[in-house]
Every structure is written in C-alpha cells, then in structure tokens.
Amino acid sequence: MWELLHQYSGYFIKILAAVICGGMIGLERELKGKSAGLRTNILICMGATIYMMVSDLVPRMYGLPADPGRIAAQVVSGIGFIGAGSIIRSGATVAGLTTAALIWIVAALGLVIGIGYPLLAIIFSLIVLLILIGLGKIERIFNLGDHIHNQDSQDADKPYSNSGLL
Predict the structure, then answer these.
(1) Is the N end or the C end of the chain the one with fewer CB atoms within 10 Å?
(2) Numbers of helices and strands, H then E, in the chain
(3) Where are the domains of the chain?
C-alpha cells in the first residue's frame, strides 16, 4: 500500500495543487456571488491537470510517441466553449467576461500543474488573486465600472455607422 502511494505521490501532489489553485480563485468568486465559484474552478483546474497527466502517462505505458502540446491545445479550445457560455449580453450590457477569462486562466493553471510545475501554478494563482482583489478595489475607488457601463449605455443609443461619426 505504501509503495503504491509513494509511486504515485507526484500525481497526488499535482491533484492537491489543482485543488489549491482552483480553490483559491473559486473561493474569491464564491464570496463575490459569481456563477463559477469554488466547485467549478476546482473541477476545471483538476480536469486540465488530469488531461496533462494523461498526456504524460500514455507514452510511458504504451511506448507510443506523444505530444503534450496537442492535449494542451484541446483543453484550451474546449475550455473556450465553456467560457463563451458564461458570457451574457443584454442590450448594451455584457456580463461574464471576467468569469470567462478566469475559466480560461484556471484551465491554464491546471495545464501548468499537469506538466510538472505545481509551485509555479500556485504563484500564478496568487497573482490572479492580486489582480482580482487589487484591481477590484482600484475600480471601486475610481468608479471605473460605473463609468464604463454608462458609456456603453450611451453608445448603444447612437445609430450605427461604419465611419463611427454618427
């Protein structure tokens, strides 16, 4: 039993790192009441990590040539569909862009972990949290979110023109 745990300890560490990275970002989103919260971000990060681990395991088990970049590319394109589904447009208002970007980032963190750099992914996750929390405070201080929303609403009332002069 202990031999088995020791043999696969690197994989357990990667999964734990995926839970930590996805969990940190997911908790921040959960506390803000966003749709992609704790569970979603953990599962996205774990999924991407597992896919990258599979891209490493298959050639080892079967002696087949493999290109881990192909798996990563498929994760990126697949996660793009999930992210696109989180974007909602209602009139001049677009919601879910940050959620879509975070889904993309969390999958990228999973790929970094899966390829063998869990500590780097944890550092990247902390940078993402700094951006989410720090820039959120700056936006509130300078009232940037309201300004952008109001400008979009004003632009939506203007007639469309190819030249942009109307």
Answers:
(1) N
(2) 7, 2
(3) 8-132
